[in-house]
Amino acid sequence: MQLNHAQRELTLKIVYYGPGLSGKTTNLRHLHTRARPDVRGRLLAVETHDDRTLFFDLLPVFFRTSAGFKVKVKLFTVPGQVIHNATRRIVLQNADAVVFIADSRRSATEENNAYWRNLQENMRENGLDPGEVPVIIQFNKRDLPDSRSDAEIDEARRRGSQPVVGAVALRGEGVLETFHEVAQAAYRRLESRAHLTRNVGLSEDEFLGQIFRQMDLSGTTLEGRYQPSASGGRP
Asked: Model pTM?
């Protein structure tokens, strides 16, 4: 989190992490499409010839609070290829929360576990406590053969402390729900550390409402929860 009282600006950083081709870029592209054009920044991507993210995508979501603070929520992905671990570590710096995108196919279990360990290692290298920084797990590609059953996903949910969301990111299923989970978790951590309600005038309801009222929630489990904003949220 970056809090600039002089400029009355608060910036949060959320990082999407996981193996190559697990669906990190697909998640961000879908979120960008669902956001109102006047409250989203340009989606930046640097890709190789085989369509893998080489560096990162950046999606700034921004609005102004009732207390006059400008809030930016920046979303990043990390490169998935093994050789780019140094870049993953750099992108992960100062993350307020993380989404771990796992391939839900049973055949991908070993790779998922390797990248999960890699995430923990890189968090510690950056001075981030894996026990304190919120991590949301998304099991993507639930539509493919050999994917984990609902019972297996539920078992993973019970076994760990992290929230777990099932998804088919190519169809947009579970993408906004995952983002809602991580945005909420990021806010609650920062509220406990920086007292955003008292110091910035930003409550959890306003934080989530300002983001999700600016997004198309049709066809998701969030539909009807946030009434669309009549005006753009861009300062």
From this structure: 0.92
